[in-house]
Amino acid sequence: MKKKPYIITYTGIEFLLHGEGIDQFKLEDIAHSLSMQCRFTGHTKHFYSVAQHSVLMSRYVEDPDCKIMALFHDAVEAYIGDLATPLKRRIPEYRKIEEEIEERLFMWLGINVDPYIKLLVKMLDIRILLTERDTLLLCSLGEPWIQAQIVTPLDVDIKCWSPARAKKEFLKQAEAVGIVRATGDQSCGVREDAQYRSGIVGKEKRL
Predict the structure, then answer these.
(1) How far apart are CA 139 and CA 162, in angstroms?
(2) Using CA of residue 194, residue 199, residue 202, residue 205, what is the dihedral sign?
């Protein structure tokens, strides 16, 4: 029987790209992979990771649910990478896989996806994109990006972190928003406050 498509993660997990299981996610894998991936497909003056991008967004907002969503909004890229936006729009199959894994990811985190919170995080993503463009790209386009006519850049100070620091800060922020690693196996758990928000009750969940 032909084996389903999978990737080998940093901690050695065979992560299936298709399926309904959620036990293959690990916080260590997500933090490590995102810390090693550069934004703007690497076309920046300095290395700037997806992990740092996510941490800055999460620390900017006050709402607890927004903080979690902002931190993990690009977490699927830990498993399938990212594509330049113009290319992504031409590959609907990528979008489908991305959405399927994202659904599994949020189940693993134990959170319900509030459409309004997701919209707020999307707007935040656009705003920080403008800040990153102005800070990290060597040259800008001759014409303004359409988003600049709608929203203002996010007021964050970007000082590029090394991959090691980005991973450390991601894990620290995950704990700050209620997502913790289980001891020993470096898997993920959801604290009771996060469980309460998502309707999960009982003892701390170890995933």
Answers:
(1) 23
(2) negative
Domain ranges of the chain: 6-178
Tell me if residue 120 falls in helix, strand or coil. Answer: helix
Task: For domain 6-178, say whether CATH 1.10.3210.10 is its number.
Answer: yes
- Ramachandran angles phi, psi of 121, nearest 5°: -65, -35
Q: How far apart are CA 165 and CA 184, in angstroms?
A: 22
DSSP 124-181: HHHHHHHHHHHHH-SS--SS--GGGGTSPPP-----PPPHHHHHHHHHHHHHHTTEEE
Mind listing the pLDDT tens digit of every residue in the chain (207 residues)?
A: 667 889 999 999 999 998 888 999 999 999 999 999 999 999 999 999 999 999 999 999 999 999 999 999 999 999 999 888 888 889 988 899 999 999 999 999 998 889 999 999 999 999 999 999 989 998 765 556 655 557 789 999 999 999 999 999 999 999 999 997 643 334 454 443 444 333 332 223 333
CA atoms within 13 A on the CB side of 54: 33
Query: By the 8 A CB rule, do 187 and 174 touch?
Result: no
Length of the chain counted residue by residue = 207
